[in-house]
Amino acid sequence: MKSSMVYAGLLAAALAGQAAIAADRDHDDDDKLTIAVFGDWPYSQNLLDKSKLLIDSVNADRDVSLVIHVGDIHSGSMPCTSAGILPPIPKSIPGWNQAVYYVFQQFKAPVVYTPGDNEWSDCHKTKQLSAGDPLKELASVRTLFFAKPGKTLGMTEKTVYSQATYFDPSYPDDAQFVENVMWSDKRLVFVTFNMPGGSNNDLAQWTAPFTNDTAQTQERTVRSAANIRWLQAAFKYADRTNAKALVIALQADMWDPAALPAAGGAGLDQYTLFVQELATQTNLFHRPVLLLNGDTHLYQVDRPLAKPNSPTGLIHKTPPVSNLLRIVVQGSTNPPAEWLRLTINPES
């Protein structure tokens, strides 16, 4: 307990220092913050080939100060890439992830990317040609996209706080989650999580030749617990810095009706502990919380926990949460140059 308290204090102190500097710097600036958000992209060779249209569109908007990609950098019917994995799996596409990395590096604004299921947890599936071991694919994603812990991608490098550095020493396994990051800007706190959609947060059994129930259960258990601790840390940071709002970015659609067993899906119960903690923390926060996710590809804006008896409210059985707004980012069906332009005004 003492170690956890010390960790929380050190984390809050370190993050509060940056927040105070940011608040002073932003005092005379426009209070609004404009970010570009997209996900489930590029889903095809055609979209990758036309990536310059998207890059140029975002770069031409002088108000955009940040780019967020909420996961899935290729379709669920494409082989995984096995970048840097030797010997390479014959059915994999070793150059795909490097090509997407190169695209990310052409955005003028800092780029924050959080992994989706298609690039690691679903690589074992036959529809992805059984082209990758999930744990090796996740390690490959970390090596490529998170080679500099605490730094974003893009032409303008931004310093962020990574769970790989700011983890509770009572839980040393949390240090592996270099992809979970946190930062502040214009009195807003942002936080990301490795929360893959599909297969019920990686519950559906990995298929041969990658079947490994022990390793899979360990992966899901450790990651889920680390995500909850990172969520708690984000709310503590937002509280201690008097943030106007909290913005969360992750891949999974934790309320996808098509994923429910009644609809033939793998279920959503493996997200329940996270959603319940999100509900608790959001209610205690008393300020706006914005959740950005991809996964289901169709643009949607809702308040999934506002009414406990609604279809979304019944899924995770939480108390009513009125100050949580969720945006599902349109994905694979986007025209090549389409992205979500999100403007946040912390004062309103």
Characteristics of this structure?
single chain, disordered N terminus, alpha/beta, seven-stranded mixed sheet
Task: Calculate the mean pLDDT score and round it.
Answer: 88
Q: Could you say what the CATH topology is called? A: Purple Acid Phosphatase, chain A, domain 2
CA-based shape: globular
Overall number of domains: 1
For the record, give the distance between the C-alpha atoms at the N and C termini, rounded to a whole number.
Answer: 38 Å
Strand/helix succession: HEHHEHEHEEEHHEHEEHEE
Task: Provide the structure class.
Answer: alpha/beta
Query: Which CATH architecture is right?
Result: 4-Layer Sandwich
**Major pleated sheet:** 7 strands, mixed
Task: Give the helix level as a range of percent.
Answer: 25-40%
Please report the first level of CATH classification, the CATH class: Alpha Beta
The total strand number stands at 11
What do these coordinates show?
This protein has helices spanning 2-26, 45-49, 51-59, 96-104, 134-145, 199-202, 213-240, 272-285, 311-316, and strands spanning 33-38, 64-69, 111-113, 161-162, 181-185, 188-192, 245-250, 289-293, 300-302, 324-328, 340-344. The two termini are 38 Å apart. α4 (96-104) links the parallel β2 and β3 (111-113). The protein has a single domain (2-344), classed as Purple Acid Phosphatase, chain A, domain 2 (4-Layer Sandwich). α1 crosses α7 (213-240) and α7 (213-240) runs parallel beside α8. It has 348 residues and is of the alpha/beta class.
